[in-house]
Amino acid sequence: DRQPIIAIDGPAGAGKSTVARQVATQLGLVYLDTGAMYRAVTWLVLQQGIAIDDDCAIAELANKCKIELTPSQDIKFPVRVWINDTDVTQAIRSIEVTSQVSAIAAQAAVRQALVKQQQNWGKRGGLVAEGRDIGTHVFPDAEVKIFLTASVGERARRRQQDFKTQGQPEVSLEQLEKDIAERDWKDSTRKVSPLKKAVDAIELQTDGLSISEVTSKIVDYYQQRL
Ligand code: C5P
Known about the structure:
It is found in: Cytoplasm. This protein is 50% helix and 16% strand.
């Protein structure tokens, strides 16, 4: 017996984090950002100077590391992320981590280690989990499954806005579109748990919709279902 779970999946920059967080707040559920976990492992791999294709060393690191996610009042970084007791909240949003994370997240052993932890955290339910494989693999029995999308152009604009808010160096829209398209391609073509809409997920195309509009659509849908 467990509390309900909402699974939100979709490509990079579709607004999953912001929306998932607001849905969680409105419904009194816990928010789980699984992308932050893959980013934290990637940060540690880079920090330790391990080669991106050294599957063995990376598998060992993923199995041994301790990841903690804690909510925070900081509007720029509403979730604080720790790996092996180092606060990597800001560091995991860097261009370096972002450009390498898909290669790390494609490794079977890394996914196995992180999915196990996610399922452990979600045992009692009561959460909104967000990522690429939540509805398909992590919580296939989630009561509500949403597949959030937006055009590449729209997602690049949102990312640029995020960077501004976070005080990161400015990146051109063209570059952002290229990076997003590349990450989409890597995430949807990998062998293990590729980004895919679950058959029973609802697809929400969010171009031109505000965060609060998307949030209320999901909240309404949840309330109809339960
Ligand atoms: O959501 P975010 O952009 O932070 O995710 C970073 C990367 O982590 C994704 O591009 C993807 O490669 C990986 N990821 C994943 N499975 C998840 C969440 C994230 O493979 N459930």
